[in-house]
Amino acid sequence: MAAPAAAQEVTTDTYDGFYIGATLGGDFIDGARDDRLVFDTDGNGGFGDSVRTVTGADAFSPGFCSGIANGSRSATGCGDDDGALGYSVRLGFDKRVGNSSLVAGFLVEGEMSNATDYTTGFSTTPASYTFARELDKSIALRGRIGASPGDGRGLIYATGGFAYGQIDDEFITTNGVNSFDVVNGDKWQFGAQFGGGAEVMVAGGVTFGVEYLYSSYDDDDAFVAVGQGTAPATNPFVLRNGGTDLKTNAGDFDKHSVRATIGYRF
Asked: Which ranges does the record mark as transmembrane (predicted)?
């Protein structure tokens, strides 16, 4: 009877100490928003203006979409935002609380991703204008708390904390006459992350698991300065104030990540 008793003994020294790990999975842009381009035509810093033609008509009456333009006309529609393969490395520490199943800890993580968010507008020219934002890389500091019941070799947890990511900005257009310059692009932005996961420990301190993570970065700095270029003085972008600034109304860069995890506990 001694062997069965030993097999049922709760292990309380697992998930207690330092570990290293890596993740691999899919990154997906949060597409549940009605994104559009917004304009500042009078140079006062407020992006609530309309771009008007010489007759007073709305130059962007064909509309907007949350995606990348398939062509110059709105009738061609838009493609989806670009998901990407994301990967990361992490260093963390967990502490089992007493002899209970409760585990608390923290981790530092560096991530690479090329997930890209697109916002497009169509003008009556016709022409398309797409503002693209790509998360290049990020670092994060998160806490995590979870439960490791039974024999202590499994862990179910929630995680959350702060992130700092580099977001690259690009502008794509079929308008070949105006000039377009990205201002305040390619910057590091602060954000937050939260999610959860589960992992199991196998022989030798190695763990395997799955994880979901939601990331949101405050990204409201970049805009595109539109100049006259080779366009005539009657061009809608320069008609009011000699130029127009435009940006996406999506103030945050949001993405979902679904990952497989692997780790080694010391």
From this structure: none
